[in-house]
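dumping this here before i forget
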Amino acid sequence: MALPIWAGTVKTTIAYYERHVERILWRYRPELAMCLRLGEKKYGGRYASHEYRWFPQLRRITGESVAIAEPVTFQRHQLEEQAVVGPIKRTWNTMLAKEDKAISKSRQGLIDLVKERQKDLEQGSSRELSEQLLTNDGGAAATGNLLHGTETFFAHNAANADGKRRDPNDNYAGLSTNHGDQGGSDETDDEFVVWSPTIVDYTGTGWAVGQADWESRCLIVLNYAMQKVRYRNDEPNFVDAVFLHPDMFTAVTDKLEAKQEVVLERGRQKSKILDFGFEAIEYRGSEIIPTYSAPADTGYGISCKNICWWSIFDKLINMETDYQTGSQTFVWLMSLVGNVIFKSPNRHFKLINAT
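structure:
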């Protein structure tokens, strides 16, 4: 049965958005703008699987002294272990009825109505994905069917001996994040922290400056967290973005302005986020970004280049449409079947108030 003229108009309008929906999602939330733009993407084809597998290098080959006259003994080094993350399925849907066509009164009115419904879908999906990216624990039974965000690997024990950190105590992609579980005896060994994120308690007893609050310690805490992540890896590992609750962001801007630090202006420097219309400041090569996706008193340092977006489809967001003859409605569905992959937890940090 041929589509009614009004339903054909709806389908044609939706088809335009279907080609651009992933790019459009960037516009609504700073987390997606950074992580989708800078992160790796692996879609469809051989990635259309019931799970995503990769082999992170957890150990390194060490040299061996050999006498000049002796032959070299070759050995197989077990450098890697398999990490595995499964897909989640998240859907967003809406519909238009024949009555909507009548109320819109014209073809252009119908097109405008479709645009509004599609925008609602995009904004809803963007907000959910952003919040889940930062705060969802994909390892928990109650939230395992949501995007596996950073909280999947940020569980922790009591305070570290230095009074500034919390020791990680979690499992990500089937591998333990605990210090030393991948080898090594202390932080001078790469293996000791190779799968461990940095969790900084800015109210801890190990800080020598200021009162036990973020307003007093924010810059020294940021310096500490960035350094811990940046210099514990062999490869350059800048945290591209630090997402802070807006109250924490205000404290940082106050400190930087007092020190007469340069604040980024849109279009003047190579900002990755300002040109999307979001607020940010630059600090030590990272962009500090306010967002209500971060809970109160909490911040997340993310190496966006060490994120992989995975979808079993040939695009991140798949869109399906259909005209229901019986009910005379046009329905459409946006869905994500895949996940976000953090290539290694130790390339990210979390700022917490543990008091």
